[in-house]
Amino acid sequence: MLRFHGDAEIAPGLVDLAVNVRTAAPPSWLMAPVAASLAHLARYPDPAEATAAIAARHGRPPDEVLLTAGAAQAFVLLARALRPERAVVVHPQFTEPEAALLAAGHAVGRVVLRAADGFTLRGSDVPAEADLVVVGNPTNPTSVLHEATVLASLTRPGRTTVVDEAFADTVPGEPESLAARRDLPGLLVIRSLTKTWGLAGLRIGYVLGPAGLLDRMREQAPLWSVSTPALAAAIACASERAVDTEREIAVRLASEREHLVAALGRAGVTVAGRPASSFVLIRVAGGERVRAVLRERGFAVRRGETFPGLGPDWLRIAVRDTATSDAFVAVLSDVLGG
Questions:
Q1: In this structure, is residue 68 part of a structural domain?
Q2: Using the 8-state DSSP alphabet, how is residue 180 labeled?
Q3: Which among 53, 62, 80, 88 is most buried, taking Cβ atoms within 10 Å?
């Protein structure tokens, strides 16, 4: 079930609370260059300008940036490029890193964080002998934001530490991001441009890290793997205007998340940990039945049992506008009461 994802939950007529992609239409200043790029599809994509734009945004030289067809592709390239003797994935989290490692023939160990601890990570949780560590921040599906100091403590010579920051831009100010850290040995930070900007269908992400390590990943990538429209989106999303807008969206999202958490609390539903991103994780008795009835009542939510460390009573809920959240919680309350 590692390859099951939230898009499998949605269907026509259902309110989508299963996918963590922002549903608002991208702004015109983003879509205009994407649309204009369609006039140049006869040319092969050239990633140089987009790479330079992303590098400038993060204060890095261009050779420390690798553009990918979404963050998911980055995990495949990484699995093909490395030969870890002891790979460890911190769960519950996005399952593609483990799936990619297994598909490449690697053995994978798991560090499973506990609900009783709020799904928070301590440096001592990770085996000292691990030479590849993968962790999300904030983590999908728990929405927990780990401390940057804890993640930084995982890095060391001889180890590749991969921090999946696909949802980092959903956190106001990105206080725990390691994207700017060039001093930590073996650190790779994976980012996505599809969540906040609603571009999941365009497939655009990138990796930040040491040039030599990125070169090894680049060798595993197919030619021209990032399309011309996706490159145009990357350039637009790296602009100062985009960064400012992104921060405004994150602040608004935090308010909408607090509204959802409060509404769930009034309904007697406890949210796991301290959510920090565009989704929350809840546990309800009879989760499979609840999810099925919610579908009958018009709402699609993400099942939890496909995430290692969780079971069928766990459900992930995307944060939407307050009206949608209120409507969902009203139905959920009725389902739980029945």
A1: yes
A2: T
A3: 88
